[in-house]
């Protein structure tokens, strides 16, 4: 896990100002999408998601997580999800129409990226070696919250990719996987 936290610290210390800009744009677009869901706002949100997923692919995984042995695969995985958002922007598949069916859960999930840093602080971690709202887990939770809030018609291909990533990530922690030699699998085979 040392490599994991070291790469997070490297990422956060080098990009914190850009992360703040990304967060503020996301808050503004989400607020507009909820309050005034005009066609240009819906398209702007899709372009934001394309940029956000490309950021996670290139900046987070490919550049700052280069030290991790799986960074290339994860960069490709998130790049594919950015391409899915591009396809969605072209086809207009995700309509961003409110249903109000999952509002409570949606708002909880939209708040989670801001709770992750607080959990890091509660665990005794400090900046820059802590989770931030512009990291893969936070982006997945934000996206699921956004899609649930506007659940009338969503891109299920994207949802399947998100769930696949989230289940794989959670399984890594459930089975006590670490990046050090002597992982859970090596000890129990």
Compute the separation of the termini in Å: 21 Å
User: Uncertain runs with pLDDT below 50, 5 residues or more?
Assistant: 168-189
Strand content: under 5%
**Counting H and I runs of at least 4 residues, what is the number of helices?**
7
Main sheet characteristics:
none
The dominant shape is: globular
Q: How much helicity do the residues have?
A: over 70%
Topology, number of strands: 0
Q: What is the succession of H and E elements?
A: HHHHHHH
Output the structural class.
mainly alpha
- Average pLDDT figure: 85
Q: Report the C-alpha radius of gyration, rounded.
A: 17 Å
Would you kindly provide a written description of the structure presented here, covering whatever features stand out?
It is a single chain. The protein has 189 residues and is an all-alpha fold. It is built from 7 helices and no strands. The protein has helices at residues 2-35, 39-64, 71-91, 103-122, 136-149, 156-174, 184-188.
List strands and helices in order, with pairings:
Elements: H1 2-35, H2 39-64, H3 71-91, H4 103-122, H5 136-149, H6 156-174, H7 184-188
A few lines on this structure:
By secondary structure, this protein is mainly alpha-helical.
Key attributes of the depicted protein:
single chain; 189 residues; mainly alpha; 0% strand; disordered C terminus; globular
């Amino acid at each position: 896990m040392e490599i994991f936290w070291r790469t997070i610290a490297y990422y956060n210390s080098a990009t914190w100002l850009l992360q703040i800009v990304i967060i503020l744009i996301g808050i503004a677009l989400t607020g507009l999408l909820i309050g005034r869901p005009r066609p240009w706002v819906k398209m702007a949100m899709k372009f934001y998601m394309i940029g956000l997923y490309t950021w996670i692919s290139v900046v987070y995984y490919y550049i700052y997580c280069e030290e991790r042995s799986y960074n290339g695969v994860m960069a490709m995985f998130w790049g594919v999800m950015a391409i899915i958002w591009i396809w969605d922007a072209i086809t207009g598949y995700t309509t961003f129409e409110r249903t109000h069916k999952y509002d409570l859960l949606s708002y909880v999930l939209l708040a989670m990226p801001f709770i992750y840093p607080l959990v890091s602080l509660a665990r005794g971690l400090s900046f820059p070696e802590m989770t931030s709202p512009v990291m893969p887990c936070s982006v997945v939770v934000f996206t699921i919250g956004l899609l649930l809030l506007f659940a009338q018609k969503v891109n299920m291909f994207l949802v399947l990719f998100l769930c696949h990533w989230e289940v794989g990530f959670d399984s890594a922690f459930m089975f006590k996987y670490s990046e050090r030699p002597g992982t859970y699998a090596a000890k129990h085979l």
